[in-house]
Design goal:
alpha+beta, HIT family, subunit A, 5-stranded antiparallel beta sheet, 3 helices, 24% helix, binds guanosine-5'-monophosphate, Histidine triad nucleotide-binding protein, HIT-like_sf, HIT-like, Histidine_triad_HIT
């Protein structure tokens, strides 16, 4: 999906500045804004201004734009002072990964020691 109703997801409305967001960086092709429900001291979402549903579709259709997204993620890390301490870039893709917004976005996480990630653990599994 490359051409779609520009109002189809929340992130198109943020890019169009119809919905307010804490925008930390913007380029001709990307926008970075803070996640409304941060999971780390720094939790910023980086989106391409052109909509693809997920990172696989973006990589197949426009690898240069994917490179722009990664470069913006690194710029966000520079702006938040994370380059020396380290940071994580995550693309949730599909249901098992918990993707909820189907406009591809990179999560940039850092600013504190991050936990491990992977298999879902229920509290009951710890017994
Ligand atoms: P996903 O679960 O699709 O990988 O990530 C979607 C992210 O969008 C979530 O981390 C969620 O907190 C964030 N989010 C949802 N609604 C809004 C909003 O209105 N504004 C901002 N800035 N982030 C949002």
């Amino acid at each position: 999906m490359t051409e779609s109703d520009p109002s189809e997801t929340l992130f198109e409305r943020i890019i169009a500045r119809e919905i307010p967001a804490d925008i930390v960086h913007e380029t001709a092709t990307t926008m970075a804004f803070r996640d409304i429900s941060p999971q780390a001291d720094t939790h910023v979402l980086v989106v391409p201004k052109t909509r693809y549903r997920n990172v696989g579709e973006l990589a197949a259709a426009d690898p240069a734009l994917l490179a722009d997204v990664i470069a913006t993620a690194h710029r966000v890390a520079e702006l938040d002072g994370l380059v020396d301490s380290g940071y994580r870039v995550v693309f949730n893709t599909g249901a098992d990964a918990g993707q909820t917004v189907f406009h591809v976005h990179a999560h940039v996480l850092g600013g504190e020691q991050l936990g491990f990630f992977g298999r879902y653990r229920d509290e009951a599994d710890d017994d």
